[in-house]
Design a protein that fits this description.
mainly alpha; flat; 199 residues; binds protoporphyrin IX containing FE
């Protein structure tokens, strides 16, 4: 067991096998909406959402707040090793969340209704308005990740060529947009999960 748990990849593979076994068991048990590609994609969507927002919360709850207290000689460990790895899972978690979210909305047949915030159906469905709001908030957050936070982090962390004086400005821009995503995250989650629970 110790050998398994000390290996990240193998632990993740076993966790995936257990999840697939539960999906298979649910499919055999039947009942309810059943196991379809849409319900499996919804599960994948929540997984990617946790990966993404979990790392957003790591940056905001832990890294950004702790950085000023870290002695200068230790700071490169964060900038050179931890942050680039965290940013890799962060941006691809965001991509996985967006793609699976759009697929689920399409598979459930309300993509246009939700994206138009209910306008295409005369604002008849509160559920579609709420999920649409959640989707738009999360899409704004996705745009912030891929088009503002990541390009600025690349400059701040020295992953691309840039004049030294550009780094502090890039780091501040990335921080402010990361905070913006923290601000949007709770209403986004209420809309996203409320559309399932409130209606
Ligand atoms: C990036 C853009 C996103 C899009 C387009 C999107 C889209 C959707 C859609 C369409 C649903 C409804 C699924 C259904 O009808 O059963 C949904 C549910 C959900 N989403 Fe998102 N979403 C996004 C981001 C996120 C993020 C960042 C999270 C964070 C964890 C998240 C968490 C959830 C949860 C927990 C549910 C409820 C699942 C359920 O109860 O079945 N979503 N999302």
């Amino acid at each position: 067991m110790g050998a398994l748990l000390s290996n990240f990849r193998n632990t993740f593979i076993v966790s995936s096998i257990l999840a697939i076994a539960l999906i298979a068991w649910s499919a055999l048990a039947g009942g309810g909406a059943g196991v379809t590609w849409v319900t499996v994609t919804t599960w994948l969507h929540v997984f990617f959402g946790i990966l993404w927002i979990g790392l957003l919360y790591y940056f905001n709850f832990v890294q950004i707040r702790t950085m000023p207290k870290i002695p200068d000689e230790l700071k490169p460990a964060i900038g050179k090793f931890i942050a680039p790895e965290a940013l890799f899972w962060f941006r691809w978690g965001a991509m996985g969340t967006l793609v699976t979210g759009l697929l689920v909305a399409m598979g459930n047949g309300y993509l246009i209704e939700a994206m138009s915030l209910g306008a295409t159906e005369g604002f008849a469905s509160g559920k579609n308005i709420l999920i649409g709001l959640g989707m738009w908030l999360a899409i704004i957050m996705f745009i912030n990740v891929w088009f503002v936070i990541w390009p600025n982090q690349k400059i701040a962390l020295g992953l691309v060529e840039a004049p030294a004086e550009a780094k502090p400005k890039a780091a501040r821009t990335a921080m402010l947009f990361s905070r913006t995503n923290l601000l949007l995250s709770l209403p986004m989650l209420v809309a996203m999960s409320g559309a399932q629970g409130f209606y």
